[in-house]
Amino acid sequence: MNTRREFFIFLGPVIAVLAGEQAFAMPMLLESDPAAKRLGYKSQTDSAKRCGTCQHFQGKKYDGIGGCPLFPGKAVNTNAVCNEYADRTK
Ligand code: SF4
After folding, report:
1. Whole-angstrom Cα distance, residue 9 to residue 81?
2. What is the pTM of this model?
């Protein structure tokens, strides 16, 4: 790497991959978790309103799991939902 700019161009994708990997390293959020109960977290829903379409979801659409800032340190299922759902398309 010759320049600082090249270093950051290289680093961007590495950080993105590490952030994605982080969700897989986190324990899954359980419905029995006190924070989950407080926000009405359900680990499965058939509704279109689910973590995978929520603007808070920190995973990729087809990852299956991802992080959520409302539940730090825990991974949520892409087919889960809670009372704080916020449509990503709005
Ligand atoms: S706010 Fe709720 S619905 Fe949205 S990603 Fe987090 S747990 Fe899922």
Report:
1. 35
2. 0.75
Nearest CA to ligand 1 atom 6: 68
Which token pair is 68? 């959520």
pLDDT surpasses 50 at 45: yes
Ligand 1 proximal residues by C-beta, below 6 Å: 41, 51, 54, 56-57, 68, 70, 76, 80-82, 84-85
pLDDT one-digit tens code per residue, 8-38: 455 444 444 454 556 678 999 999 999 999 9
Question: Using CA atoms, how far apart are residues 30 and 62, in angstroms rounded to an integer?
Answer: 20
Centre of ligand 1 from the C-alpha of residue 67, in Å: 9
- CATH class of domain segment(s) 4-77: few secondary structures
Q: What one-letter code names the amino acid at 86? A: A
